[in-house]
Design brief:
By secondary structure, this protein is an alpha/beta fold. The protein has eight helices and seven strands; from the N terminus they run βαβαβαβαβαβαβαα. The radius of gyration is 17 Å and the shape is globular.
Length: about 260
């Protein structure tokens, strides 16, 4: 198993036009001018993302179509990426939906995704794409699946309970998957960022200990190099949630959203 970002020669990002996906791909690719495949739904955004990742130091960047909820296509997407760049050293699940929290229990409002769409993308999509990816990594005998979880899934809050519960499910899936892969050479890294500045959170007041895509990318690179199973970004969120997850529910419910 490869234990350093210096050894990364190929990266597949599912959700390749996302800011987190672009930042992580650029950070991992730069040391060895690695080959990167960015997979997503919007060709125009993918083209812009490819330019960013190439400028960050990637040696080669390919783009391809990917839809997190087109579950029956996920094996083929991973297979096509492999045909383009060979063995996959790192596969990043960087897709996700946030939604309008207040409206989620009433369905889609003002163009925002419905509760079911959020759950289908953030949880079922992660399960489907994650299993497709690790099937390949296990066949190779090496490689790491990077799952972007969230502190919102550590203890779900009323203000974003559908998003939080979808991330809780994805986090639990990733934990179990990592244990199931023990001894195969394939591994899983769980990434738990806090509130991230970017398109998804534009116009929202930042939460305490907010972070950036670049900081998340640095955290992922450091965790891969150290062979860690979990990384919190910023790191102080880990100890904070070790306490917050045990806060009495009455107090938890009254914390500002």
């Amino acid at each position: 198993m490869r234990d350093s970002t210096r050894a990364v020669q190929s990266v597949l990002v599912l959700g390749g036009s996302s800011e987190l996906g672009v930042a992580i791909a650029g950070r991992l690719a730069a040391p060895r001018q690695a080959a990167v495949v960015l997979a997503g739904r919007d060709p125009e955004r993918l083209a812009g993302a490819a330019r960013q990742v190439k400028a960050a130091g990637a040696g080669r960047v390919e783009t391809m179509a990917f839809d997190a909820t087109a579950y029956d296509t996920h094996e083929a997407v991973v297979g096509r990426a492999t045909s383009l760049v060979g063995d996959l050293d790192v596969v990043v699940l960087a897709f996700g939906l946030l939604g309008a929290h207040v409206a989620l229990d009433r369905g889609a409002v003002n163009g925002e995704p419905s509760a079911v769409e959020v759950a289908a993308t953030n949880y079922v999509g992660v399960v489907s794409a994650g299993l497709a990816a690790v099937h390949r990594l296990r066949e190779q005998g090496h490689g790491t699946l990077v799952v972007l979880s969230s502190v919102a899934g550590v203890r779900v809050r009323a203000a974003n309970f559908v998003y939080g519960s979808s991330k809780a499910g994805a986090d639990g899936f990733a934990q179990g998957l990592r244990d199931a892969l023990a001894g195969t050479g394939a591994d899983v890294l769980i990434v738990r960022p806090g509130w991230v500045h970017g398109r998804m959170t534009e116009g929202m007041p930042p939460a305490p200990m907010a972070t950036t895509p670049e900081a998340v990318a640095d955290g992922v690179a450091a965790a891969l190099a150290a062979g860690r199973s979990t990384v919190w970004v910023p790191g102080a969120l880990g100890p904070a949630f070790a306490l917050l997850r045990h806060l009495p529910r009455g107090l938890w419910r009254r914390l500002p959203g």
